[in-house]
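re: the backbone from monday

yeah here it is again, tokenized this time
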């Protein structure tokens, strides 16, 4: 989601130190979504509880509807009658902002995240061919090799930033291998995708918007070069499969090819970074759960589900109404954007019980989280993310009995793809 807003600043506003440069909102009554209140970066969950308790479905001053309880969030995620395309926004500020955003954008990203059937069905079927249980299982030895190499370097160093040492490079290497990408400037590619991912946040700073557009242009050129190289050097990989499908009549355009590759880098990389980073942080802040996992390593699969629930890699996703829509006692008009608050729904005590704010790696119903969405837009890469999290965190905990946080965790200041930029650990 990319949202531009203009508000009148007051002396009581809380400035955002990091993130997208979006203007701060004025003080809000209890339960109204306000990511600019003190402490939100470190812990948004107390605020999410207020939203669930006081205004679980709310029309926000930003011009969108926020939905925060698990029941309503699950309902709208599963509802195929809702759209994910901003083209279906009705007349009003949100539509004006969207049209202003795309007016000068030289790259039109068309992915399974922002298209409806029939295009969504076609694209999802094509991209989904690689994300079979068999293909994911085949990747596990390669993932384990990358993890073990990173753990060797961590052992030599003794103390590292977990994000830089493991969480960030691992999923990038995996998605590059899956795609069969040619040799490229990986550092530049990482920098550009870091900028592009800011488009998933509310953005109000014109300089940030310009940086996103520049990143789109540069990434578009890099991906088109990779596609041209792969046409001459086909292999047993996802990029080849996408190209061959396009050549064999699936009507996948060059723009669509570029869009799917960038989606895989953004969604397949940054969410897994957050899963590993947020999961390890939560574990090390709960020594009893750390000890439980060390003594019962077979819990790692359920632990990953609990990490996904407890501190979701993605906190929000959008849906747009195509007709008047009833949810939580409210009728939302056609053409309105609803924000499903995944991070809030995952802590809903109505589903997860009075200990929903506690980390419990043996939680029986942890997999009821909505971190990978539900329904027609359920994340295609969920099995891959789960496997990477299981291998990375499981082997990290097993390898280092004295694993511990060695300093304060620094968060990235994002309200959607919330994660850490620095997790100092010692082994």
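seq for it, each position gets an aa:
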């Amino acid at each position: 989601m990319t949202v531009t807003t203009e508000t009148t600043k007051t002396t009581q506003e809380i400035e955002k130190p990091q993130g997208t440069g979006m203007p701060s909102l004025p003080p809000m009554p209890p339960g109204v979504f306000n990511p600019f209140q003190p402490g939100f970066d470190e812990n948004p969950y107390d605020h999410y509880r207020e939203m669930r308790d006081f205004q679980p479905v709310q029309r926000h001053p930003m011009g969108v509807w926020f939905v925060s309880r698990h029941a309503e969030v699950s309902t709208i995620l599963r509802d195929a009658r809702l759209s994910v395309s901003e083209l279906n926004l009705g007349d009003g500020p949100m539509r004006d902002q969207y049209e202003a955003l795309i007016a000068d954008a030289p790259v039109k990203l068309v992915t399974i995240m922002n298209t409806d059937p029939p295009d969504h069905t076609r694209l999802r079927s094509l991209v989904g061919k690689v994300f079979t249980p068999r293909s994911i299982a085949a990747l596990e030895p390669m993932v384990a090799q990358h993890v073990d190499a990173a753990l060797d370097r961590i052992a030599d160093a003794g103390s590292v930033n977990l994000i830089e040492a493991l969480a960030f490079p691992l999923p990038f290497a995996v998605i590059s291998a899956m795609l069969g990408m040619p040799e490229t400037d990986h550092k530049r590619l990482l920098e550009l995708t870091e900028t592009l991912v800011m488009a998933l946040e509310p953005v109000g700073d014109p300089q940030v918007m310009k940086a996103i557009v520049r990143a789109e242009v540069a990434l578009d050129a890099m991906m088109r070069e990779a596609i041209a190289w792969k046409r001459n050097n086909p292999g047993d990989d996802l990029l080849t499969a996408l190209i061959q499908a396009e050549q064999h009549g699936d009507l996948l355009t060059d723009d669509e090819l570029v869009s799917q590759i960038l989606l895989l880098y953004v969604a397949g990389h940054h969410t897994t970074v957050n899963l590993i980073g947020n999961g390890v942080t939560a574990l090390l802040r709960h020594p009893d759960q750390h000890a439980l996992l060390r003594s019962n390593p077979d819990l790692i699969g359920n632990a990953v589900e609990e990490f996904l629930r407890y501190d979701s890699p993605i906190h929000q996703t959008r849906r747009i109404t195509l007709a008047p829509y009833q949810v939580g006692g409210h009728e939302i008009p056609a053409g309105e954007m609803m924000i499903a608050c995944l991070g809030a729904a995952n802590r809903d005590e109505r589903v997860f019980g009075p200990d929903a704010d506690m980390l419990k790696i043996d939680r029986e119903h942890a997999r009821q989280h909505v971190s990978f969405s539900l329904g027609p837009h359920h994340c295609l890469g969920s099995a891959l993310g789960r496997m990477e999290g299981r291998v990375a965190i499981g082997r990290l905990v097993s390898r280092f009995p004295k694993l511990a946080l060695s300093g304060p965790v620094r968060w990235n200041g994002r309200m959607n793809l919330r994660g850490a930029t620095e997790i100092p650990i010692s082994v």
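The longest helix spans residues 254-284. The first strand starts at residue 57 and ends at 59.
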